[in-house]
Amino acid sequence: MLPYGLQLVGLSAWLGEDPNPGEAARKLLRRWLWLTGFASWFGQGNPSRYAAVLAELRDQARKVTQQGSAVPERLEHLPWNTPTEPFPERYDLRSARVRTLLCLLARHGVVEPNGEHKNVAAIADDFARNGPEAMRTLWVGSPSLRSSPANRMFNVFGEEPGQARTLLRKIQDHGQDFLESHLLPCPLGDALNNPDKMESVLASRLQSMIELEREFMTELEIQAPASAQTGKSLIDQDDEPPLTSFDSE
């Protein structure tokens, strides 16, 4: 589910020098990780820029641990006002922007139909085994949002085949915690049997996802997309281009 492999390299560049970061460093790394995902930053095809920010993370960590310097509040090679990409209009796991959204949804929490919280490791395992099919389509009949991430939910139905709308009909009691974790309205029963209402459920769910993202970006002091409308996402077919060494020693 990691949006970019180079994000792991960046975290390692800091943690290799500062394995027990304090809160200021954790804040910096959190902002760095999520911003590079929301901005599709490693998908722009600029290896020298990537190497520069990785080297900056390592060098700043060294200053903190070896020289007693304060954790920087900003990074020269990744401004905090870097524009973020709009909410993705299509569910496509080749897009790091989509994978970033899924990481945020997993962080929001996933409740099973029996009321238990699904372990985040189990969610990641679903993606490792099933790829795009780790998310169930809610309703295949949606005329306008069929391909939207709003028409996908984490698979909490095991191996049972079918679209989520059909499987949800078999669940007698849709607990509020379950529905809220999947950003579904409560009550849901009528919409499951009424196509017109189901379309409005997806539209409402789309707005809830957009709001969840924007609230999280505000929490991290990341600049939200200029528009609340959906947009096309960059397809990251190769998120790990060859890099020149960022170690000048």
List the helices and strands and how they pair.
Elements: H1 5-15, H2 23-38, H3 47-66, E1 87-88, H4 96-108, H5 120-130, E2 135-137, E3 152-154, H6 164-169, H7 176-181, H8 189-192, H9 195-219, E4 230-231
Helix pairs in contact: 1-3
Quick structural gist:
This protein is mainly alpha-helical. Helix content is 45%, strand content 4%. α1 (5-15) packs parallel to α3.
Which characteristics define this entry?
45% helix, 249 residues, mainly alpha, two-stranded parallel ribbon
The computed structural class is: mainly alpha
Q: Which spans of ≥5 residues are poorly predicted at pLDDT below 50? A: none
Counting DSSP E segments of at least 2 residues, the number of strands comes to 4
Oligomer: single chain
Largest sheet: 2 strands, parallel
Strand order of the largest sheet: 1-4
The arrangement of helices and strands along the chain is HHHEHHEEHHHHE
How many helices? The count is: 9
Percent range of helical residues = 40-55%
Shape: elongated
What number of domains? Answer: 2
Q: How far do the termini sit from each other?
A: 33 Å
Radius of gyration: 20 Å
Rounded average pLDDT: 92
Question: Could you explain the architecture of this structure?
Answer:
The protein is mostly helical and 249 residues long. The protein folds into two domains: 5-82, no CATH class; 87-216, no CATH class. 45% of the residues lie in helices and 4% in strands. The chain has nine helices and four strands. The protein has helices at 5-15, 23-38, 47-66, 96-108, 120-130, 164-169, 176-181, 189-192, 195-219; strands spanning 87-88, 135-137, 152-154, 230-231. It has a two-stranded parallel sheet with strand order 1-4. It has a two-stranded antiparallel ribbon with strand order 2-3. Helix 1 (5-15) packs parallel to helix 3. The radius of gyration is 20 Å and the shape is elongated. It starts with a helix and ends in an 18-residue tail after the last strand.
